Amino acid sequence: MQFSFNQRASLVTVTVHGELTLETMKGAFARLVNHPEFEPGMNAIWDLRQTTINIRPGDPSKLAEYVRTRRSSRGSRYRLAMVAQTSEQWSMARTYQLVSAPLPFEFRIFRDEKAAREWQLAGSRESTEPAQVITAIRQLGQVFSPQGV
Q1: Strand partners, 47
Q2: Is the sign of the CA dihedral 77, 78, 79, 83 positive or negative?
Q3: In this predicted model, what pLDDT tens digit does every residue of 60-70 receive, in sequence order?
Q4: What is d(CA 126, CA 67) in angstroms, rounded to the nearest whole number?
Q5: If you write DSSP's letter for every residue of 11-31 in order, what string do you get?
Q6: pTM value?
Q7: Per-position DSSP letters for 28-83, written without gaps between them
Q8: Which domains does the chain have, with CATH numbers?
Q9: Cβ proximity of 107 and 97 under 8 Å
Q10: Rounded to an integer, what is the distance from CA 121 to the centroid of its chain?
């Protein structure tokens, strides 16, 4: 398991290798939220392309509950992208997407890492747009204020 942080984009990429089980996913989550570079609410790409899936039918629900009970350390209102190539990886990611729907994050699944990264970076830009609009409105208010007349 490898973490790659982009603090400027508030994005972490988690590359998973080997067998993927409920316990390895819980362990990865715990390592992620305890990593010194991690910030709650940080967007994430989980790259599953180099994994072998060994998930039992109830495991995605258990993982969603595990994440829910640790919301204070993970944060909310973030974007989660999973990159899956095989049908087993895609099926596990889709099942997790369905059972985690009530959780406070946006979740998409991608076949390639580039598309996942573009979606994440577009979200980073979208999240700054309201601040830019507010700044522009304030600047216009200063230009057109009655005090300047």
Answers
A1: 15, 83
A2: negative
A3: 999 999 999 99
A4: 25
A5: EEEEEEEEEE-HHHHHHHHHH
A6: 0.80
A7: HHHHHHTSTT--TT-EEEEEEEEEEE---TTHHHHHHHHHHTTHHHH-SSEEEEEE
A8: 2-148 (3.30.750.24)
A9: yes
A10: 11
